Amino acid sequence: MVDYALIGKGIRRVDTTAKATGEALFSADLKLPRMLVGKILRSPYAHARIVHIDTSKAERLPGVKAVITGKDVPDERWGVFRYTQDQRFLPVDKVRYVGEEVAAVAAVDEDTAIEALKLIDVEYEELPAVFDIESALKPDAPLIHDAYPGNINISVDINVGDVEKGFLESFYIREDAFEAPEDSYFQGEPYAVVAHFDSSGNLEIWMPNAGPHLKAKPLSNVLKIPLNKVRVRKITIGGAFGGRSEISPADVICAFLAKKSARPVKIVYSREENSIATRQAHSMKATIKTGVDREGRVLARDITCYMDGGAYSSTGPIAVSVPFLCMEQAYRMDNVRYRGYRIFTNKPIRGMFRVHGRAFACGIDLQLDLIGKELGFDPLEMRLKNARRPGDYTPTKSKVVSCGMVEAIERAAEKARWREKWDRLPPYHGIGIGCNSVQTGFPMGIRGGSQAFIKFNEDGGVTVITGIVDNGQGNDNMIVQIAAEELGLKVEDIQLINADTEVTPSDPGSYSMCETFVGGNAVRLAAQDAKRKLLKIASEAMKVEPERLAMRDRKIYVIDRPQEAISISRVVRMALSRRENISGEGSYWPKVDSNREWVTNPFGQLSETFSFGAVIAEVKIDPETGKVDVLEVTAAQDVGYAINPKVIEGQFEGGVAMGGQGGMLSEKVLWYGGRVLNPDQLDYMVPIAPGMPKINDIIVETNDPGGPYGAKEAGMSVAMSAAQAYASAICNALGVYIHEFPLTPDKILKAIKEKEEGKNR
Amino acid sequence: MVDYALIGKGIRRVDTTAKATGEALFSADLKLPRMLVGKILRSPYAHARIVHIDTSKAERLPGVKAVITGKDVPDERWGVFRYTQDQRFLPVDKVRYVGEEVAAVAAVDEDTAIEALKLIDVEYEELPAVFDIESALKPDAPLIHDAYPGNINISVDINVGDVEKGFLESFYIREDAFEAPEDSYFQGEPYAVVAHFDSSGNLEIWMPNAGPHLKAKPLSNVLKIPLNKVRVRKITIGGAFGGRSEISPADVICAFLAKKSARPVKIVYSREENSIATRQAHSMKATIKTGVDREGRVLARDITCYMDGGAYSSTGPIAVSVPFLCMEQAYRMDNVRYRGYRIFTNKPIRGMFRVHGRAFACGIDLQLDLIGKELGFDPLEMRLKNARRPGDYTPTKSKVVSCGMVEAIERAAEKARWREKWDRLPPYHGIGIGCNSVQTGFPMGIRGGSQAFIKFNEDGGVTVITGIVDNGQGNDNMIVQIAAEELGLKVEDIQLINADTEVTPSDPGSYSMCETFVGGNAVRLAAQDAKRKLLKIASEAMKVEPERLAMRDRKIYVIDRPQEAISISRVVRMALSRRENISGEGSYWPKVDSNREWVTNPFGQLSETFSFGAVIAEVKIDPETGKVDVLEVTAAQDVGYAINPKVIEGQFEGGVAMGGQGGMLSEKVLWYGGRVLNPDQLDYMVPIAPGMPKINDIIVETNDPGGPYGAKEAGMSVAMSAAQAYASAICNALGVYIHEFPLTPDKILKAIKEKEEGKNR
Prior knowledge:
Chain A has 19 helices and 30 strands. Chain A is α+β, with helices and mostly antiparallel strands.
């Protein structure tokens, strides 16, 4: 075990004080001189042709400084892949969902802006609309995009091994269907953008984001200005969860309003807008057919998933294959076919989510429980029999280098006393388990690498410059801990400049779980570059070879004679006296196969490494009310190496809240046609702190050879596994397997009633 | 001649739009939320013991948020050298000049702050004071600092060759005394500071400065916080001229007020405060004894200068030797003794100035004119006989690598038609010449080097990160031109991040005329580092050796087949596809001898190179009023290479305004004891644009081998030579040599009267 000074320690996060005192500013808090209020006019129709827009009355209203429609915005379309670019930031021809952006105003105050919106006359010609997958797939269904026949946005067909042969060889086969409606990310911070152009045409823009450089590129494209004029600034961010990954129409609209009015403009979304006009999670229907041998080992799987993508592609295409990729990483399966379809409907746009594909992931686990029941193996045994192991290749041919799946399952089982409890719990008590795995980055081509610069001040202090963004998960802290560790400094010796596209080099952003792995490695390499220079100078001064020197406690010392030491600040000054500046540069590019079609044809190394999680939940159900009381949750994850265990525990617990407590007990979007009925916190029930169960955190470390200090993704595997564990536990408590999530009291009561009536599913 | 795309072109300055529209913010323009107004209580006495300060009444005044005295500020003393650190930022024991800082308040508005100042009771015990060099040097003079017996702050004694032998061998010897009072820098922008601490103890501070990193270090020392918590920010600066070089008590006071009040604080100096409480130029008395051979060539010089330094050392010690160093660079002199003394008086503090040592420099030139008159050589011949030439060593042993002094003199003479006009001008018409030379940087030890980082965006745009500051002279533009030239890009492709101590690496600042030479070289090296990486990739793609490739117009092309080209943005994307980031780092340290005692013992290479200027002025005097009408000025300077001729012409013309028009015709500080009688623009007459003469700019290029593209300092040699040329021309017009500057109408009328009365001096 390496003896680190800071890595592996649960030191206090660097952003604590600013957040605790309220000093930290979020985008909505910003105030610029002469700033205007921006408001967006949204479509009242789910599907309609825009016949005419008359903005003249709005323009004449005193206090209105700019009105824009689709005509003011170049025809640059958004979509995460070149072949799915289908969304204009302000449509000109037709609207495709209730809430779509139609026009926008900037005015001196909010009242004037709202009044101006009312004065914009839009003549629509309403079109027939579709609101669910089945209707959208009907031959006579209204076509939402001309370019997508049959309303099929994307279809994925992955076929590995020989599925038919696998089924033929199977001892037992079963097929189940699972489904789940949409859920909402419900970030604590509502979406807000502030944009400002200076007289040289430079854009300064602030917004919650999961990668400032990813926001800058489409802004550069649509504004027709180079990247060095797009300055996405660092700002405190109140959660992303996949939902702040991509450019938003609001970003573009705010920039165009600022350009037209020649004044700063701020748009703050209402809670309702945040729920309908930012990305939210997909609904899904999954059919899973699994064949196992006599021992319960999976021999073949045939899976079909349909996802309702809403009206545009956005990052949605990625959502089609990722749930499958996660499960093929988590569980061994040699012969597998996966067919995934993303279907357009006239509903708000769905995107990437931290707890992705509930129906599919929970389905896989519930089906394993059902198979085990048939063969006489408990869910724990079923997981262990099928768990991914190190050295394996996934079906789509990613090598799994480090893998603590078995250890995560075993340690969770021991902590949760699974073997004591299984089959011995009283009625309506249950225990369940879920396992999942996530990538640390996707193949992102030229945007996949991260770079960091480091400079030393003459007093031995350091500045780190990196594009890594912190959405709340503690990335700022991760950077500082890595730099300080590598350079033998204290956390307070590190000054961090990050998440600003003007000054920082490129970085892939936090949305693909790669900031620690990719960005962290870049920071470490930059620090090592500076360290090499320091050790060379110290080596000459101390007359000891550089290999025999180490850095710690602000000193460079001889490893086997620690009392022989020299302060780092002195070595920096020695360097300066020799006319050498101490600085460092580091770049890290994940070792993945460049595969532009990885979503539809995901073969090759898709991510350099993977994290593995196992969650066990124990629940008690009130058969009178259907209410679930979660007694204890044990969350275990192979994080590679815990750079900061406290931060990781926070991620685990947030994951249980989001994936389990919210995602499986309460969260679902309610619809009336294309309208969201529960856009607010009263009706869309997000879990709150007092309702959280006891959580045991188990950090599994496998020291990934590619990760910084062995670290990889931390927390998302838990978030997903938690949903699965909750489903498994509740069905175990009920003795009935519900196939539609979340498992809300109404469904539980119905299941109890059906069970009592003998209708065992 | 190298064919550059941008270097050598008079392209529009990058800061033009922001300055023309008023968008550019100066420190006094800044507004931060909850910002307080800071005000400073100043001593009404020139010399007094502080017996007691009672701030209790001020503290009780509603709206007052902080009151500080010397007790609140650690005993860190300021002075540019360790051995001259004698100034507390707020004194505790005694005050040494009228206007010295005694206490300070921060309040919600200006009225309250002023009211609070009145409520601070300071009990003083007045001490005898001295206001001139002679009184300060008397044996019974009051002692201003215990550590400086005889009130002698610093004494310099340089003795080169054999002066006595030189005089013995001389054909003609004369000795003259010259003197000049203090002058004021009168920057357009008054001094202002805004300071703010965040909850993590990081200081953000804005102020006019000639080197943000030079400001950060003393702030770090006195605030006892590391450099990475001191963030001197970039802000538009309205002129420095040597007067924004060093830390100001206002910087420290503002920071302590911000710390104590836990709110942002802004201090804006009144015009009066700007004149008494920021550094201003020294007065000087110079005695010059010169011996020449029959041909007018100087064989020996013995010089003694006394400078009134005011109450503290500050950067003043440098001022003692610099005028001598400039002249020993400009004119050959093998046997020379220089004795320089800086004397403390109870007057405001004097510092470095762009037109340094008027009395001495003009004295040298006037004396050459007088010697020439005696020997039958005109001033032009005298300058040519004694001009510095390339390959020479200065008396203090600096090698002069590039030197266009003779060319500057000859071209100025030709343009001014000297040989046609000399001795042929009508009465009260005159023509005169002055020559001078400046360093490009002083030995600054560990702070002497500049470093720059460069990053490429994926679209081929570039960001340059450097500590170089722009005080108005065009340094921002210089950086951008160099980076764009080196990388074959357009000016608008370069994004500049500079003059911010948080993000930029160290840089010596603009105060020692070294930004182009030192900082410009660092930027060029950083660009070349990035270029090397780009050319390597392009070379492989184009199958041509890198040496055969060049970059221009956003393309990389084959030098001898320019149609074979590939766009730079494409090469950047190729690099990214290969998982390589394109970035660059460059450091430049001037090749000077490390000499910590260079002020008192300036031997060795003091600056890597020197600039050389020659100015010719033609004047007409109204004998009735003594008013000088400057008919034409020809300003020539060896700038090495003109990176931007338009910017350099601006510097030349500003130099003529400051050195000649202001420095020799009107500018002087008037005193009543230790009180400045003319602190404002009405009474201290700064030249204004409509009063400026016709100026011919002659840029001499000698392609310095060490300078970026051959460039070195531009403008300061002209500023100094202008003063000398004006003096020479006026004395020529009068036929009388006045030894006291500036040459104001009263002195001119007196000289005319004395001449008419036959009292030829």
